[in-house]
Amino acid sequence: MKVNISYIELKTTFKEILLKYNFEEDDAELCSEIFAENTLCGVLSHGINRFPLFIELVQKGKINPKAKLEKIISFNSLERWDGNYGAGPLNAWRMTDRAIELAKKYGIGLIALKNTNHWMRAATYGWKAANEGFLFMCWTNTIPNMPPWGGIEPKTGNNPIVFAFPRSNGNVVLDMALSQYSYGKLATLMYERKKLPVVGGFDEKGNLTDDPEAIYKTQRALPIGFWKGSGLSLLLDLFATVLSGGNSTADLSKLDDDYGMSQIFIAINPVVFTSQKEIDLIAEKIINFYNSSKRLEGEQILYPGERTLIIRNENFKNGILIEEKIWETVISLKNN
């Protein structure tokens, strides 16, 4: 059974709970906005569904609600920061801001962040940067939750990565894990007792399966592009770890919870080369060609981020459908 909750009620509820767990006013406001926005955009797995776990990590001391970001070293447009185990969404939002500041000054800004926590929906930061007119990339390493190609044990992360492109007629934002399905998506489908649209990993017998529970149990998610996704996950871990000086996926495997990641944020100011008008003309030409493909019967062609805009607008107008048990769990955090 599902309940219909408005964006405003959702955000207000999150903020009340965050204040209860010792977040400062400004931090509680921003963090509640991020969780509510993720839910509004239809990514419940990294919005309301994950909020109780976020609070659990605060209770365990793995997320420090009072932590402050600390700049370790800088070299012109490159900087290394320490998140000091603060809230992942707050750290990522502010590091995106800092990358944009550097890009305004130098044309490009690169931030390497260590000792941070799960940033929830990675696309949040791509949308933020694109809305401000910047090309953007960011990625994170994760706990080992995917086997390298040819292996059966999880020894690499599915290391989500985002690419964002600013466009007046709708930003193009690609947010993807390097597994065929993120573990958040697997958890959502498990909760809804649904199968995957296509196979997404291996069961205990080593067979490809569309059963999310079986994949969650084996931690043998299928890499995107098979060996290509496996190799890319390794490179993203190498870049994030070396540049940040933080934890690698191997280091994260030794921790008892999902925290302490290393992340990269890169913002590029495209107007150092051309105007926004010219950028839009180029984007329209490319997207129009992309959309000109003959469609399969009953199928749509959508550019990355287009579906998000549709879902967001519908949910803002009509309210967000949330599993009643999840909503009750969140409300209990406020009342207990």
Task: Please provide a written account of the structure.
This protein is of the alpha+beta class and 336 residues long. It folds into three domains: 1-60 and 306-336, Malate/L-lactate/L-sulpholactate dehydrogenase, four-helix barrel (Hypothetical Oxidoreductase Yiak, Chain: A, domain 1), CATH 1.10.1530.10; 67-179 and 223-277, Ribosomal Protein S8, Chain: A, domain 1 (2-Layer Sandwich), CATH 3.30.1370; 278-305, no CATH class. The protein is 44% helix and 17% strand. The strands form three sheets. A seven-stranded mixed beta sheet has the order 2-3-4-10-5-6-7, sandwiched between helices. β2 (70-75) and β3 (78-82) form a beta hairpin. α1 (7-20) packs antiparallel against α2, α4 (88-106) runs parallel beside α5 and α6 packs across α7. The longest helix has 19 residues, at 88-106. The model has no long low-confidence stretch (mean pLDDT 95).
Secondary structure layout plus pairing:
Elements: E1 2-5, H1 7-20, H2 25-40, H3 51-60, E2 70-75, E3 78-82, H4 88-106, E4 108-116, H5 123-131, E5 135-140, E6 161-165, E7 172-176, H6 183-191, E8 201-202, E9 208-209, H7 212-218, H8 227-244, H9 249-252, E10 261-268, H10 276-291, H11 306-318, E11 320-323, H12 324-335
Helix pairs in contact: 1-2, 1-12, 4-5, 6-7
Total count of strands: 11
Give the radius of gyration.
Answer: 20 Å
Termini separation (Å)?
23 Å
Biggest sheet strand order reads 2-3-4-10-5-6-7
Strand content: 15-25%
What is the CATH class name of the largest domain? Alpha Beta
Envelope shape: globular
Biggest β-sheet strands, sense, barrel: 7 strands, mixed
Low-confidence stretches: none
Compute the number of helices: 12
- The whole-number mean of residue pLDDT values reads 95
Total individual domains: 3
